[in-house]
Amino acid sequence: MRTAPSTRAHPTLSARQRGSAIVEFALVAVVFFTVLLAIIDFGRILFQWNAAAEATRLGARMAVVCDVGDPSVLSNMRKVLLNQNLTSAQLSVAYNPSGCTSSTCTSVTVSISGYQIPFISPFMGFLMPSVPAFSTTLPRESMQSINSAGQENPVCF
Known about the structure:
Elements: H1 13-16, H2 20-63, H3 72-81, E1 91-96, E2 107-112, H4 124-127, E3 134-139
Antiparallel strand pairs: 1-2, 2-3
C-alpha cells in the first residue's frame, strides 16, 4: 500500500519565503528614509542660505537709514534668520571709515559668518558645507533715525 508523501517534510515555496518581505522592506526603508531626510536637509540648507543673504541685505538697508550702531539692525537680522542665538561675532555691522559719525560715514558693510545649520540626516553634516559668509555693502544715505523735519524713521524703532 502506497501512502501519499508528507508535505510537512518539504515546505512549499511560499512557506520558505514567509519573512522575506519584511527583510526586503527593512533594507529598502533604511535607504529610502536616508535619502528622504537628505532631500529635506538640502532644502533647509538652501532656505537658510537664502535667508542669510536676505538678512545681510536687510541689515545694510536698515543701517544706512538708522543711527550709527542702532541695535534694531542686528535684531531684525536675527528675525530674518529665525535664529535669536547668533552672536555679535557672527553678525557684524561695519561703518566706513572706521570710527565715523552719522555725517562722516561713507558706507556700511553688514556681514554674517560662521553660521551653522543643525542637520536632520546623520550623513548630511559630512556631505554639505557650512553656510558661506555673506556680506552686503551700501553707500550712506542718511544714517539718522530722525529726518530733517523731525519725524522718526519707523524702520529704526
